Amino acid sequence: MINGERTIARPLRWGMVGGGRTGQVGYKHRTGALRDGTYQLLAGAFDLDAARGRDFGTRLGVAEDRCYATYQELIAGETAREDGVEVVSIATPNFTHFEITKACLEAGLHVICEKPLFFTVAECDEVAALAREKGLIVGVTYGFTGHPLVHQMAAMVKKGMLGDIRIVDMQYTHGFNSGDDTGAGEAVKWRTNPATAGSTFVLGDIGTHLYYLSEVVLPHLKIDKLLCDRKAFIPTRAPLEDHATVLTHYDNGARGRLWVSSVNAGNMGSQRYRFVGSRASVEWSDAHPDQLIYEVQGEPNRTLHHGMPYLEEESLAVDRMGALHTEGLGDSWANIYLWIAQAIDAKQRGDEAFLSSHHYPGIEAGTEGVRWLENCVRSADAGAAWVDYQ
Ligand code: NAI
């Protein structure tokens, strides 16, 4: 169980790029990072609007002279200080991730970046090589995979409790973009423009969460081939999609079905996962993250609750609130940030043995998400054809 005791020697000196007052995801970062005393928010280039960013930063408790107008100024200002930040989170639109990450790494700063990490696998490989050369960590905020019951599913699969995995069924949908984009805010505008979003809309925006969570639960399954069918129901969003389905063949013979959509009108279900094995199935949704449905063929169905002693050690180890009390998205983000802090701390101490067995979403996880997107787009652009996974 995690109880807030500090697990690294001292808090990491932390800065943020983006995630300003009007940003959607910034508070999730701060909720995650500031929970366990493992990060201290000391600097930021929080906003494209420099004055608003400064006002916002000072209200977060950041010194005025460390609220910068641009990320370039942040890097210059902080690297010139003895007590400058050592890790920077990037919570800006997709098209900026690559250049800001590279600039931070080149300046010797660890990075925690939003997903989808970059536009291409080639960019991911370039950054992975740079991080390796500089001895720095790149963490990726797949914020849903800190939930304790995600790790319960992974442990049950590992123990063979489901039998051989046969079916992977995943859905992340909502209806917020069911209407057209007249009068849309900034967050919708950049998401529906290939120049700022990359080669996908909902596949990258929400589908990468499904894909990464499936990697956490089923690390032994690799994709052989997939078929992706995507469509823009609102034509102005083309060539990007507001709806997609992906069929998957895995190397163990399992079959997958994935649905992402932001035009599922009225739907507030968010994410749903069902992993079916030869003996039993598990089903989990982030709408009810405290509960896991466990169905064994021929037995009464069970609902497992987070924090209960009958759960696997791997799940209990990352529980924060304890059974009976709600454990939610903020707790999941706190776990992600804690695991990345532990990775940075180990890197700084040169503890490669710790790093080799430490679980956190790093550059490989970010790269695999981008690889999945590239394969989806290749299939969709070939007319929803089956493609070998590359
Ligand atoms: P947003 O458009 O709501 O906010 C972006 C923020 O970044 C704003 O504060 C803006 O002023 C600032 N900004 C933009 N360019 C900047 C720059 N060059 N320098 C400094 N600040 C800059 O975007 P949203 O929805 O917060 O998404 C940001 C990123 O987070 C995206 O990559 C998105 O895919 C990801 N995201 C991830 C989620 C998750 O669960 N991990 C959830 C929501 C978004």
From TrEMBL:
InterPro entries: Gfo/Idh/MocA-like_OxRdtase_C, Gfo/Idh/MocA-like_OxRdtase_N, Gfo/Idh/MocA_oxidoreduct, NAD(P)-bd_dom_sf
GO molecular function annotations of the record: nucleotide binding
Domain Gfo/Idh/MocA-like oxidoreductase C-terminal: 156-387
Lineage top rank: taxon: Bacteria
Stored Pfam families: GFO_IDH_MocA, GFO_IDH_MocA_C
Gfo/Idh/MocA-like oxidoreductase N-terminal domain mapped to chain residues: 12-142
The name this protein goes by in its record: Oxidoreductase
Native species: Zobellella endophytica
